[in-house]
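ok so i was messing around last nite and threw this chain in just to see what happens. nothing serious, just curious
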Amino acid sequence: MAEDDHAAVHADPRETFGRPGSRAPHLWIEKDGKRISTLDLFGAGFTLLAAREGAAWSTAAREAASAAAGLSLDAYTFGRELRDSENGFAAAYGITATGAVLVRPDGFVAWRAKSAEMKSLDTLRGLFARLQCK
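result:
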């Protein structure tokens, strides 16, 4: 059977807006005063990206990851460790100013909270346990 040359293998990350299971969208941001792509943050382990008012997600992610032995995690909050001069992060990832996303090392979105309506620590503890098949 011939392959369909027009069928996309993966949806365009600019059109999936950080939906879990899709590739994480690229944005130009600043980290430590250097211009980088959000994609440069992925690869070593899981990466949690919290919007400007979502610092509770980063704090909870670090605490939950420390209790989940063997889970490698970097957690960042925009406006703190990361700068987004165009303020496009939340829209690009389909979240509000209080939301967060968790990206796998391969650059695919594993999970997202569109806002801070959930209890962040309990939510992330459960998520990390599922990621470790516990």
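not much to say yet. The two ends are 41 Å apart (CA to CA).
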